[in-house]
Amino acid sequence: MERDILAEVNHPFIVKLHYAFQTEGKLYLILDFLRGGDLFTRLSKEKSHKMHREEICCPWKTLRQRTLPQTPVELWTCRRPLFPTLCQADGTEGWLLVMFTEEDVKFYLAELALALDHLHGLGIIYRDLKPENILLDEEGHIKITDFGLSKEAIDHDKRAYSFCGTIEYMAPEVVNRRGHTQSADWWSFGVLMFEMLTGSLPFQGKDRKETMALILKAKLGMPQFLSTEAQSLLRALFKRNPCNRLGAGIDGVEEIKRHPFFITIDWNKLYRKEIKPPFKPAVGRPEDTFHFDPEFTARTPTDSPGVPPSANAHHLFRGFSFVASSLVQEPSQQDPHKATVHPIVQQLHGNNIHFTDGYEIKEDIGVGSYSVCKRCVHKATDAEYAVKIIDKSKRDPSEEIEILLRYGQHPNIITLKDVYDDGKSVYLVMELMRGGELLDRILRQRCFSEREASDVLCTITKTMDYLHSQGVVHRDLKPSNILYMDESGNPESIRICDFGFAKQLRAENGLLMTPCYTANFVAPEVLKRQGYDAACDIWSLGILLYTMLAGFTPFANGPDDTPEDILARIGSGKYALSGGNWDSISDAAKVLGIEPRTSCVLSTWSTPSSASPVSALFDPLQQDVVSKMLHVDPHQRLTAVQVLKHPWVVNREYLSQNQLSRQDVHLVKGAMAATYFALNRTPQAPRLEPVLSSSLAQRRGMKRLTSTRL
């Protein structure tokens, strides 16, 4: 039965069956390994602290130490669940205080409701809903598991009569054995909600018999510290008449979705896993089990109990073997030399993974080290897109695909439309950027002002602030990766592109250790092979801002600069902030970082009056956005949030709209190309001489050292 159910279901919040097979005397189910552990174990590790036994007698003192409401009145009128669960941690003097907010509970219950609705739609009653059967994946989303007690082929007109489940979570109709339907799962859903919000079970006696009696007859004690919406939902779920229970009607789960408790949930985004979970488990190696309770992992593995075989038991398991459809390939299509197809492509297209079936490839747009970008046309709609074709033998595109799928809906991040994989190359279908590269447009624009530069910086920095808040660093934020969606030149049409070097931060200290960099837009610590984080992106933005304002790059004068000179300038962090456009740029945009600071006249302000309240905002400590974005020390560099709060950005409407002068476009781009070459060139491989030619070997050859045996 469990095998049949697992083979039938396919839902993001239900554990997936990959294989099922049998040997003589044993049956095997190969399921997802969810390294986040079970829900309660994970949350207790994240949101707990040690208590001593004497503190248990004085809970108000303990709560005050956790900066919670200071009086019993405040506690019981607070709209956040604060009731503690005390559970012995190690059998000694240590205890754990576990707390759950209503927002946390709302998220997990919403995902759970979608999973139960999927089962009910297939005529399945789950019948064993409890915290131990709710697991967390690596991102923090739930998956329900253990279908050993589930019942198939049950619709609204049929009932099951088995007495099964965990007593404390059983519905009254299961306890009295008068027959139950899928409505029983919604009672268990309410028990789980009550336990997560209060830390205790709603009906629990001193033994099994008393617990069943409480479930059948006891009045529910509703904690008044819960919000009115939470109390309303609990009362609607704890209806002893299953026909009156929320979720039991014709509308099913829609009744629960419409309840005010879930009013803030976007159910479509939730299903697509676009809502950030309350906790993201810190996972390590694939085999790590530290998120599971040691009580279980320390046990010796044993077989699950089974029904004693009958004389014709071999007939029962015919057809038991199973392979998930995503792992099946037609024999005629199998190629032993073919690379593995990306799993996301399998989810989107199944076996239909040929890009040319749906799109017609046109001319090149750009060529990179690991990929080529071409214009393409969708055959069915004639819509034009850009396709990035990545050679899988040179680079794994998984991280880029994952980031684009998660964050590509941001208005200033390029949108990933489709993904294909032919085994050798991955095809990323994206928006077609008709406005061209940011720097090209700026350098060719007749009139580009300081105010426009601030507008552009604000748009890009807001986007990077969003990515950094999600733990994503771009690491290749050069002008050719910042494009305009259309010809309007409006900063809102800017798109951040090419996440080929982007990473999602996973280390506890937030640092990335993989050296990758591009041209003029690389931080000094990357050159020195040090760890780096989101400060690298701010450095790149500083280079971009410098080029927009000055009309030339800070570390290369032209295409004839040698790589050694360029690298030396980048490593030193020295650049000019005087002469040319800099003499007319507001002090708020710069600081004379090489020479001693000198006073500058705010000659570029639209309201130049010395009495202007705006000019008073720019004290000497704030007149340094370029300098602090290009600071050699990443710890002293501005963050994205600090850049957005800088007066030069906040008060940009007062900045000058006078045209800034430009160097020749080809000269500027040549200088950048020279910088790219300096940083991307392959160092000359050292020539290895025979070992005996080394001076050390020659010295040892003159007097051979002998070993001493002790």
UniProtKB/TrEMBL annotation:
PROSITE patterns: AGC_KINASE_CTER (PS51285), PROTEIN_KINASE_ATP (PS00107), PROTEIN_KINASE_DOM (PS50011), PROTEIN_KINASE_ST (PS00108)
A GO BP entry: intracellular signal transduction
Entry's Gene Ontology molecular function annotations: ATP binding; magnesium ion binding; protein serine/threonine kinase activity
Domain named Protein kinase: residues: 1-262, 359-649
Reported cofactor(s): Mg(2+)
Domain AGC-kinase C-terminal: 263-332
Active-site residues, record numbering mapped to chain: D128, D476
Keyword RNA-binding in annotation: no
Reaction equation(s) it catalyzes: L-seryl-[protein] + ATP = O-phospho-L-seryl-[protein] + ADP + H(+); L-threonyl-[protein] + ATP = O-phospho-L-threonyl-[protein] + ADP + H(+)
Residue positions binding ATP: I365, G366, V367, G368, S369, Y370, S371, V372, C373, K388
InterPro entries registered for this protein in UniProt: AGC-kinase_C (IPR000961), Kinase-like_dom_sf (IPR011009), Pkinase_C (IPR017892), Prot_kinase_dom (IPR000719), Protein_kinase_ATP_BS (IPR017441), Ribosomal_S6_kinase_II (IPR016239), Ser/Thr_kinase_AS (IPR008271)
UniProt keyword list: ATP-binding, Kinase, Nucleotide-binding, Phosphoprotein, Repeat, Serine/threonine-protein kinase, Transferase
Taxonomic superkingdom: Eukaryota
Enzyme Commission number, as recorded: 2.7.11.1
Family (UniProt): Belongs to the protein kinase superfamily. AGC Ser/Thr protein kinase family. S6 kinase subfamily.
Protein name: non-specific serine/threonine protein kinase
Designated gene of the protein: RPS6KA2
